[in-house]
């Protein structure tokens, strides 16, 4: 059975090496389209980076604090677009764009997972696509916490497209920067001090990465 033309990559936010990994995956796999967990509202800023102007007035800089779109990642995407390696860039996180700020009852977080999955399923199958999401959105199984059940976007996506490959990124040690805080990743001595891809199932892969370096919010 042929695998889907969509590959999902689960990243940990706030790490510089994510940009290098995406660049390498796109090049090595021949990816022609990126689908990223971000709002279409950031497209103008990415276009400004692509042309070399880097206009920060076009984006809410808080985005770089807790998103797949660090400055390093945006620069990498711009380079891939300039090289014509990428034919298309798609923004799959439209949830916050459509929220009713005056609503008395906030939407369930699961509504966001549902919308992410729906947006991914709306992508046509004409190009090999790498879909980048945070690891909370790429849990392959249902997570239960008392009465709460987390059905991730990946889990929902695979209900319709069961052959979607998933690359789970795991760091051996290091730091990340998220939500205004530097977070230490505990050292995992069982992982090798070099990059390694481990195939877990026919469609599930672990990417072992030796060290994480926290992103910087500096513009220079």
Q: Outline the biggest β-sheet.
A: 7 strands, mixed
- How much strand? 15-25%
Helix content: 10-25%
Radius of gyration: 17 Å
Record field, number of beta strands: 11
Number of domains: 1
- Unreliable runs: none
Mean pLDDT: 88
In whole angstroms, how far apart are the ends? 47 Å
N-to-C order of helices and strands: EHEHHEHEEEHEEEEE
Going by helix content, strand content and strand pairing, the class is alpha/beta
Descriptive overview:
The chain has 5 helices and 11 strands, in the order βαβααβαβββαβββββ. It has 220 residues and is an alpha/beta fold. The protein has one domain (6-109, 124-136, 165-209). The strands form 3 sheets. The chain has a 7-stranded mixed β-sheet with strand order 3-2-4-1-7-11-10, with no helix packed on it. It is globular, with a radius of gyration of 17 Å.
